[in-house]
């Protein structure tokens, strides 16, 4: 248990990796501030966590003003010690031919601009505290073009660039920034992305995550991971053990990037 609970802001906390991140921090006695576009998913996740350690923020990360308000509420608890930016959507295997302008805009707006919307006020708060850790969520898609769609690949590569700049800008203030690049993780991303993107997205029930034979060819550990295996990495990157790691991409992909 940590002695003084840290305030942890987690976006995309209503499902999958974000929900697992909430669990690992509350297990350590930290207070989690759960932000997600879905109030229902947030309530479900919160039910499984100690009530006294959980705050809920049903907010769309693309809504700049609503995000500023939510971040101010988190900061009113005294500090924002960690940002775990997990909100994201997946565009199936949309190619340059099947990616419409609308799909491109929506995926970039949620995955890339939505992360900026959160990072901007959080960075201001962390600069005023002179401490904090930012951990964002990339994907194998930033390094291998086949598992995901065009806009998703671009958004995740963009987030890795953003992370390097955050490390440069925030390092002098005692803040580190890193990004995790997961491979195949068992989560609800296909269903949630279809719900959020609607008709814009072609079939999401495709790709390495739905093809165990292909996955085993590409991934040396020959399995998908549980969300908790990504959450433990986020927890490490936000803690004392990673105090001198900044601007880095940590792959949690069963060795895929090495193969
Ligand atoms: N599952 C995988 O295999 C995998 C692999 C690599 C990277 N990732 C990344 O990990 C992150 C988490 O994905 P997951 O697999 O846990 O997916 P998930 O769908 O289970 O969880 C994502 C959450 O983000 C929320 N969200 C989506 N758009 C939002 C918005 N506009 N505002 C606020 N919340 C929003 C969703 O409601 C959902 O609860 C994503 O950034 C994803 O790109 C996942």
TrEMBL record:
Endpoints of the signal sequence: none
A GO molecular-function descriptor: oxidoreductase activity, acting on the CH-OH group of donors, NAD or NADP as acceptor
Pfam family, one: adh_short_C2
Superkingdom classification of source: Bacteria
Keywords, comma-separated and alphabetical: Oxidoreductase
UniProt xrefs under Gene3D superfamilies: NAD(P)-binding Rossmann-like Domain
InterPro entries: NAD(P)-bd_dom_sf (IPR036291), SDR_fam (IPR002347)
Similarity field: Belongs to the short-chain dehydrogenases/reductases (SDR) family.
Name of the protein described by the UniProt record: SDR family oxidoreductase
Organism per entry: Leucobacter denitrificans
């Amino acid at each position: 248990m940590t002695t003084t609970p840290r305030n942890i802001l987690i976006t995309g906390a209503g499902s999958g990796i974000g929900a697992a991140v909430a669990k690992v921090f509350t297990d350590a006695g930290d207070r989690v501030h759960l932000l997600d576009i879905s109030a229902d998913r947030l309530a479900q996740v919160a039910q499984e966590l100690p009530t006294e350690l959980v705050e809920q923020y049903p907010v769309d990360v693309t809504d700049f003003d609503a995000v500023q308000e939510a971040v101010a509420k988190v900061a009113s608890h005294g500090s924002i010690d960690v940002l775990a930016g997990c909100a994201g959507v997946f565009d199936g295997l949309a190619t340059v031919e099947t990616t419409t302008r609308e799909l491109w805009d929506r995926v970039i707006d949620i995955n890339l601009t939505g992360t900026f919307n959160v990072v901007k006020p959080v960075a201001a708060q962390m600069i005023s505290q002179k401490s904090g850790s930012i951990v964002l969520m990339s994907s194998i898609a930033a390094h291998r073009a086949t598992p995901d769609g065009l806009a998703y690949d671009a958004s995740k590569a963009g987030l890795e660039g953003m992370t390097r700049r955050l490390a440069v800008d925030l390092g002098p203030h005692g803040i580190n920034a890193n990004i995790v690049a997961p491979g195949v993780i068992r989560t609800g991303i296909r269903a949630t992305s279809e719900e959020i993107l609607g008709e814009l997205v072609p079939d999401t029930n495709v790709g390495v995550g739905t093809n165990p034979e292909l996955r085993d060819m590409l991934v040396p550990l020959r399995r998908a991971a549980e969300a908790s295996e990504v959450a433990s990495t986020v927890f490490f990157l936000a803690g004392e053990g990673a105090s001198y790691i900044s601007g880095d991409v940590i792959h949690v992909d069963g060795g895929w990037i090495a193969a």
